[in-house]
Amino acid sequence: MSESMTLPVLPLRDAVMFPGVTVPVAVGRPGTLKAIEAAIKSNDKLLFAVAQRQNLQEVGAEGLYTIGTVARIVQLQRGLNGSQLLVRGEQRGIALRIAEHDEYLQAIVRPAEEMVPLDTDDPAFQALYRESRDRAAELGRRSGLPEEVIDQVMETVDDPGRLADLVASYAEMPTADRQMLLETLSVEERLRRVLVQVQRQIGVLDAQDSIKSKVQEELGDRQREMYLREQLKAIQDELNEDDGTSDLDELKEKLDALELKDEVRKEIDREWARLSRIGREGMESQVIRTYLETIAELPWNERTPEHLDIPEAQAILDEDHYGLDDVKDRVLEFLSVRALHGQRAEEEAAATEESAAAEGAGEEARLDSLDEAESPKASEAQNDNRSPILLFVGPPGVGKTSIAKSIARAMGREYVRIALGGVRDEADIRGHRRTYVGAMPGRVIQGLKQAKTRNPVFLLDEVDKLGASFQGNPASALLEVLDPAQNDTFTDHYLGVPFDLSEVLFISTANFIQNIPAPLLDRMEVVDFTGYTEAEKLEIARRYLLPRQLSQNALTDEQMSVTDEALGTLISGYTREAGVRQLERELGRLGRKVARRIAAQEVDGGVEIDAEDVGELLGRPKVHPEEAAREDQVGIATGMYYTPVGGDIMFVEAETMEGKGELVLTGQLGDVMKESARAAWSFARSHADLLQIDPEAFKVDVHLHVPAGAIPKDGPSAGITMSTALVSRLSGRPVRHDVAMTGEVTLSGRVLPIGGVKEKVLGAVRAGITTVMLPKANERDLEDLPDDVRERIEIHPVEDLGEALAIALRGAAYENGRLLFPESLTGGDGLERSLSH
Predict the structure, then answer these.
(1) Nearest to 79 by CA among 28, 124, 4
(2) Cβ(744)–Cβ(513) below 8 Å
(3) Which listed residue (169, 406, 676, 717) is catalytic?
């Protein structure tokens, strides 16, 4: 057949017919049935089988592919719902035109000539052909075809093109890929594409076999495990041994013994019912069992008897800590209130019992009366006895954590500590929901489980170092924990039921109170810890640190002794801190040096360390604190500043130079400190006449510098120091070298209060300052200073800058609210000038 033919069209849905292949076709559409009738009436019974582009019920000429197969009807079987055809493909055909004819589609078809290989004996083509046959046979075997059928087909088909069509007809692939193979007229290219499809099918079968084998292996192991467990159970029954059910019985007994609220009991009964239904082999049985074990181990009703003896508590605090008088007073006040609440509750209970007994109501009436008395009154007393949340704020190493432990010892309670530094996941506080793999309760519930009592002393350490991330904000989760009005129904995500935290004494610690969110800070009562003085550090080292380091380094008092002068050298030259941690490290270094000498037999007997020996053992001093200036200087004033590790002095230097009257600021100053300098500059310019400053002095540049330029500095408290340095330089009057000052200055000359008075004054005393100026409003803060420090220095509270300049500038005076300069400093005009606020 080489000429064009007019044939009825057989549209195929989701199917492609190949030449040389006989396939059954079910026909039910009216147009297709008429096309078949037209083909049957023809002599050769030919029709044009072509695939549809889309799987539609009705299709037109535009919905069919162009290339199809000229097929012959081999057999026709009519039925009620359509016809069943057996059609054999003859050859490829190209539809030149498809149109509707007498209610069915008719096509003008021209046979498509295949492109045979140029050289069938080419080794590459022969290798491709043989590989295609081998892989096709392998695919047939993997698909379950009998071996004799595969051999018969392979012996029958010896043409490469027919082999490609046969394999493409039976291999599993999308309709679009089949159509592509039908349209591939090159035999060699068709073989190559068919080989790719066959290899892909074999790869899929390999993966299926691998999965099937793994599943069978797993099922086999589980069946084997179940069989062995049944055997083990039978053996244990014969030996009268337990198979583990006693563990569940013991767990059930623990759960039943708990005194729980109705909602908690309901949840536990529900989970126990699930565990009973699932059995030991269930996938969720271990999860539920772990949950119930956690419930059973929590202290729902266990309490530690509280022992509150105020004199004994004071003795314990004094024994464990030196100094910290304000903190100890606050702790003792707190314990006293709790002791009175406990005493009041006992008296009310005794009075209620006596009243019920006097009425002669009998045992049952007395118990009812007690229950009635315990409901409103007991709950009210419990609400009154709720513990406030204490927040210990102070620099590192001052004893915040250790004093919380002392509180627990004084109260006779269990002590639990959790570190919150760096915690960024809310689940660390509230726990994980049980739907997650590896879920567990939060740290609060775990701490109570560890304490085994519902009223421990619970320390939340470093609460200011909580972080926030995409997993939530732990600080927000702490709001419920640390609120006495809410924590009696705290619900951990893992437990899913409320737990009463109202009897827990929570104590938090922090270094920087400004890092704590305001809602969380509002729920806590702040107790400030200040740094230790040098005298306190020396006493702490003598009482606590040195004995502990001697014990850790295997030394005795006879083998190593340290003089007070050596301890003072350690404190001033080798440590710079508000606490005593670094001091203990340095004492540990001394102990190791001595231990080495004794172990090497370099010394006989003990070693006494004096101030001169410290440098020999530890090397040169690590800390170089500022020292007071030795003489008065023009333009240099001494200020005081505060850091978390203690206070110190600093020098503010002012210098003039030729310029345009500008103010230059250096020393890595913050915005607030720069504003203080500009306010001082404006004050000097506005009061130049009364300060006896030559107006020409403001036509030059003034450079204001604060040394230690590598350290950032900020804050308003250096305002009085900057003003003194500027006025001194512009007026040419020297500043007293023995005076240190601190205070914020306004544009009108008022001196405003500042913070950190104790640390600043102690730093000034260490530097050798004898006279200190403070804002008048900070006069009450001087009560925090030790008596020995106040006796060593002269303190001047000031309200305005004129009063401060009278003290700081050499030769100035302040009388009746006026700053006075003697005649010797007036330039010889004989007039007394004054500056008043």
Answers:
(1) 28
(2) no
(3) 717
